């Protein structure tokens, strides 16, 4: 299935739509107005649904929340759930909804952020009173230096290393990745208003998810943790049993940022919160991020710093062709590593199966 990993966004979308049609899925498309891909094509969020008309239980998978991370997520959706037929093997009364390329602009231009320079997975907050991250203020100018004439990876590595040594790796990661709302030119910026992708996803939740009694939610990501390892990170469910239910489904591999057991520090404004809001107090949500490690953390951070510099100084069509973009590919989807792709495929297949088994075992109206 490693051949399901696409070469670019346009190929990923074409493969996904073709596989969805072959699987008999119900398709819906949301097109981003005012923007085109590097090839001049449309940029779209596509959803594909397989299952009964009104499912009581629903597996939802999302790819491309962080744009460039969509190479991995798209491959898992297209190759495993659609081509291999796992979506059609869901139990009675269970549907499978695939949300493909939630941030199509970032996917197409090899960016983690969207067309507004916003981190979509930090955008689901109340922008009238956004959560402050004072710790980020102290590291911003190191991450995004004021207008250097050229980007020097060596100089950036030296500056980031000094910052890590001064603060400590954990404190630095927490400061950088939690999400921030004061520096539009900075990293992990959550925006000043709901983005287009957020509005699309909220519509998807209202129209295609909210009617289910129990939702298993898997947001597919790359860039954190041990290389090739798929870490299930608990992301929610507001009933009292949600975390223990997720432990029953995913076993001892399940981690939680809030408990300090995850490669991810606590974040705010993620997509799972929109699903929880949409289900309301009676719906059951068992939500995880499935995070695949790629490169060591400092290399991933270097790639993000390089990408921020690149897009401040070059138009998107020029930036996407830059050699610096290879840092982003290596950090979020190693293009030439068949071993990594094989590890991703096997682990995603296992976790999708665990989610479907968990849904099958859950009794209507109980806590799962």
Q: Can you describe this structure?
A:
- By secondary structure, the chain is of the alpha/beta class.
- The protein has a single domain, classed as Aminopeptidase, CATH 3.40.630.
- 41% of the residues lie in helices and 15% in strands.
- It has a seven-stranded mixed β-sheet, with helices on both faces.
- It starts with 8 loop residues before the first helix and ends in a 7-residue tail after the last helix.
- The model has no long low-confidence stretch (mean pLDDT 94).
Report a brief summary of the structure:
With 368 residues, this protein is α/β, with parallel strands linked by helices. The chain is 41% helix and 15% strand.
Features:
single chain, 368 residues, Aminopeptidase, 7 strands, 15% strand
Unreliable stretches covering 5 or more consecutive residues: none
Number of domains: 1
Class derived from helix and strand content: alpha/beta
Could you state the order of secondary-structure elements as H and E?
HEEEHEHHHHHHEEHHEHHHH
**Proportion of strand residues:** 15-25%
For the biggest sheet, the summary is: 7 strands, mixed
Q: Would you state the CATH class?
A: Alpha Beta
List the helices and strands and how they pair.
Layout lengths: L8 H14 L3 E6 L12 E7 L6 E6 L7 H14 L10 E7 L3 H5 L25 H4 L2 H4 L9 H15 L1 H9 L18 H14 L4 E14 L2 E7 L5 H9 L20 H9 L4 E10 L3 H17 L2 H4 L5 H8 L5 H24 L7
Parallel strand pairs: 3-4, 3-5, 5-7
Antiparallel strand pairs: 1-2, 2-4, 6-7
Helix pairs in contact: 1-2, 2-14, 6-7, 6-11, 8-10, 11-13
């Amino acid at each position: 299935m490693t051949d399901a990993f696409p070469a670019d966004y346009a190929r990923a979308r074409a493969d996904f739509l073709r596989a969805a049609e072959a699987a008999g899925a119900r398709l819906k498309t949301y097109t981003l107005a005012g923007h085109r891909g590097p090839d001049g094509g449309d940029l779209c969020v596509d959803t594909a649904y397989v299952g009964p008309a009104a499912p009581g239980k629903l597996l939802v998978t999302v790819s491309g929340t962080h744009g460039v991370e969509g190479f991995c997520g798209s491959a898992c959706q297209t190759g495993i759930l659609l081509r291999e037929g796992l979506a059609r093997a869901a139990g009675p009364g269970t549907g499978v909804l695939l949300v493909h390329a939630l941030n199509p602009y970032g996917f197409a231009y090899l960016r983690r952020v969207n067309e507004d320079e916003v981190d979509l997975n930090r955008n689901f907050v109340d922008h009238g009173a956004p959560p402050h991250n004072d710790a980020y203020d102290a590291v911003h100018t190191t991450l995004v230096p004021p207008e250097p004439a050229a980007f020097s990876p060596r100089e950036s590595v030296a500056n980031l290393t000094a910052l890590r040594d001064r603060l400590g790796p954990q404190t630095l990661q927490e400061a950088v990745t939690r999400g921030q709302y004061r520096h539009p030119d900075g990293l992990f910026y959550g925006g000043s208003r709901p983005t287009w992708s957020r509005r699309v996803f909220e519509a998807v939740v209202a129209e295609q998810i909210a009617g289910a009694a129990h939702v298993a939610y898997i947001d597919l990501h790359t860039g954190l943790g041990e290389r090739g390892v798929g870490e299930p990170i608990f992301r929610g469910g507001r009933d009292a049993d949600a975390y223990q239910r997720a432990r029953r489904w995913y076993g001892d591999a399940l981690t939680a940022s809030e408990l300090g057991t995850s490669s991810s520090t606590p974040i705010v404004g993620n997509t799972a919160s929109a699903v929880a809001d949409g289900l309301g107090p009676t719906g059951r949500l068992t939500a995880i991020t499935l995070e695949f490690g790629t490169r060591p953390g400092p290399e991933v951070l270097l790639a993000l710093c390089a990408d921020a510099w690149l897009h401040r100084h070059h138009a998107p069509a020029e930036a996407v062709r830059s050699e610096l973009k290879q840092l982003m590919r290596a950090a979020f989807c190693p293009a030439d590593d068949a071993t990594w792709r094989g590890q991703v495929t096997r682990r995603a297949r296992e976790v999708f199966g665990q989610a479907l088994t968990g849904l099958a075992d859950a009794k209507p109206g109980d806590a799962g």
